[in-house]
Structures are given as structure tokens and as C-alpha cells.
Amino acid sequence: MGDKIQTRSKTTETSLEIVGTIREQEGTSIAELSEHVGLSESTVHRHLVSLQEYDYVVKDEDRYHIGFQFLTLGGYAQQRVTAYPVIKEKVDQLAENTGERAQCIVEENGQRVYLYTEVGESAVQTGAHIGRRGPLHVSAAGKAILANLPDERVDEIVDTHGFAGGTQNGISTRAELEETLRAVRDRGYGLNEQETTEGVNAIGAPIMDNSEEVIGALSVSGPASRLTEEHLVETVSEEVLSATNEVELYIAHSV
Known about the structure:
- By secondary structure, the chain is α+β, with helices and mostly antiparallel strands.
- The protein has helices at residues 2-25, 30-37, 41-53, 69-79, 84-98, 140-146, 151-161, 174-187, 229-253; strands at 57-60, 63-66, 101-108, 111-119, 133-135, 190-193, 200-208, 214-223.
- A hairpin with a 6-residue loop joins β6 (190-193) and β7 (200-208).
- α1 (2-25) crosses α3 (41-53) and α5 (84-98) runs antiparallel to α9.
- The protein is globular, with a radius of gyration of 21 Å.
């Protein structure tokens, strides 16, 4: 029985590795997959047949791509988040009011995940998209989330992920992180000054539920030349804090 479970587990791991490789390569062939995962083409093909059967993978000529089944599941995951419809509405408003990119970020397994994002008329492309993951400590919204997690949870995240990712401007020590999170708690929002991407600044504020637990954060990001620290603090902070407050009010009165 144990051997069967172990075999099934290995099969699942291989299928997930194949899916991950297809995503990273933005489409690939059986031969390329075989080289990447270190398995024969016939074995890779068997996995692909199963993945195709359930719409997780699609074939276009000789290239395999991620299927829309993942989009279906992603839509379900979005709706699991408390007050998602109003979160989407506020992100859209932030993008329109600021002209920049706005997003809602949540934490999963110690990483930030883009739950929803929208772009304003002046926004620049930064590679951010729904479902994208990254470290929390280099993100304005990520800092807002970390600042409102229990200390033991922050310790777990740091122990697991360390301070990798981002640019050389990012936090690199536990002491620096603690100082930053204290500042976030004091002012109610986090700042990202070219820590995720060179030339991009951001501001983010947490969304708290009725139990005072953080469920995510809203943020606005854009070129550092436009979103200077002064502009973020004096102007954009009011937009972001107002949006998060409206989401929290919705949550408070919807129970």
C-alpha cells in the first residue's frame, strides 16, 4: 500500500513539474520537456495526455501550453477571498484615480500573490499579473501584510524564504525588517522604494477583517520619477487608506 501511495505521489510531482516547465517556457515541445525534467519522451507524453484530458494543458501544433482550466480554478480561488467583489471595485478606482497600476495582494505560504490588478491611463508595464508570486519583504503591500501578522508567523516566513528576491535596495536583515514593520504599523502603510523593481516605487495598506486579522493589502505602484516618496506619503496614501477603509467597512457590515 505504501509503495502505491509513493508511486502516485511521484507521478503527481512529475505532472506538476511538467506544468511548471510549460509555464516557465511559455509553451514547449515534448523533446524540450523531456530534457528539462530528465524523463523519456514517452513518459512525458503519457503525463501530457492525462493533463490534456482534464484541460490543464492544450496542444498547438507541436507545442504544449497551459490550459484555461487553471483560469477556472483561479477564478474560484479569487472568490474565496472575503469581499472580493468590493476589493476589485476599489482596485479599479485606485487605478483610475491615480492613473497608475493598482493591485490587491494576499499572502500564501509566505509569499505575496497578486489577487487582482488593474492599470490606469499612465501606468507602466512591470510584469505584475494575477497569480504572480514573489517575496513579501520587498513589496509595499507585502510589508503591510507582514506588519499585521503575528511575530511567530513572520519568523516562519523569514526562516523559510529569507531575504532573497528584489533589488539591492531591499531589506536584508531581521533587524532591518523589524524596524520597517514598526514604521508600517505606526503610519498605517508600507512603502517600496525601488525594492521590487529598479525605477518603480509603491505604497500599500492592509485590509483587516472583523477579527483584526489581515486578509490582504491594496497598493499603487508606478515610476519613481512620478511616485516620489513625498508624493506617495502626501497624496497617494490618502487614496490607498481610503480604499482599504471602505473595504473594511463593507466587511464589518456584511456579516
